[in-house]
Amino acid sequence: MSIISKDISKAVALLNNEELVAIPTETVYGLAGNIYSKTAITSIFTTKQRPLFNPLIVHIPSIHHLDTIVSAIPEKATQLARAFWPGSLTLVLPKKDTIPDIITAGKTTVAVRVPNHPLTLELLKQLEFPLAAPSANPFNRISPTTAQHVDAYFKDAIQMVLDGGACKNGIESTIVGFENNEPVIYRLGSISVEDIEAIVGPITIKNKKENNPEAPGMLDKHYAPTTPTVLSHDILETLTKYPNKRVGILAFKEQLKNDKVTHQITVSKIGDLVEATSKLYEALHQLDHLNLDVIIAEIFPDYGLGKSINDRLQRAAHAS
Ligand code: AMP
Ligand code: MG
What we know:
This protein is an alpha/beta fold. The chain folds into two domains: 203 residues, DHBP synthase (Alpha-Beta Complex), CATH 3.90.870; 90 residues, 3-Layer(aba) Sandwich (Rossmann fold), CATH 3.40.50.11030. The protein contains ten helices and 15 strands. Helix 7 links the parallel strand 10 and strand 11. Helix 1 crosses helix 5 and helix 9 runs parallel beside helix 10. The longest helix has 16 residues. The protein is globular. The mean pLDDT is 94. Bound molecules: adenosine monophosphate and magnesium ion. Magnesium ion binds next to loops. The site of adenosine monophosphate has 20 residues, from strand 6, strand 9 and strand 10.
């Protein structure tokens, strides 16, 4: 078991010593290390069993640190950073030579963001280096949204989880790269497409690995529960395909009435997509621990954060 604590000075000491600390952010918990320490970064990859072709996101304390990481900033990148930082937007920009190749999986671009969590912002301010912090889950598993999720995954393989409570947004950041200085969404996430378009106008989405070699980590099988998961527009209808099975239901706003349904989680009774997003992974973690035969997840409305939720549910179902 790792230490679960709010003690920033202990986290600083461990990170200065090239060790890893799991950190809270408003998206999901990250497994953090000094971007300039080969020891720390190597241990991020081995602890997560993450393949080396999958680059890491660099976390900085404020927009003023951006030019220590990247070598060029398109106008629309500045607009997006001003609009959303600190926050759940990751920008992919040309990297400075000083950024180690292991961070970027050999690419000439680097992913960077300013997270919006008071403990982690304070931690970043006290450190003399940025933090690389991929989600604190073993490769391909559901991302952690509480300190307890992290501890359940890694036990004493990591020394400390900085405890910042449950993550407010609950899914990963939205990743935006640039092609010919125009923004492109590489990963749907905590900030909706509509909110980004309000700043920079209509935007291309390339979040499938088939059409995007630029975002190497976007695997189909990702963010997955170990329980087989199927998606449905009509849960009661889909239920009839699983007689005599132990079925879990993940619903948006409805509470289904059916004798056969024993395990059901409704993520937002008031039908609010922000609330639904924040509870999505916690619901999947819970259902995944019940030893069910199958999880039936409702397909969400395809706008706003519903698009991001559907993206994650499709990846979860793809693994099944
Ligand atoms: P995670 O931190 O686990 O949420 O995953 C980080 C994701 O960021 C990776 O899976 C990539 O899809 C993306 N990413 C990181 N660096 C780059 C980069 N230089 N270019 C494109 N995508 C990147
Ligand atoms: Mg991840």
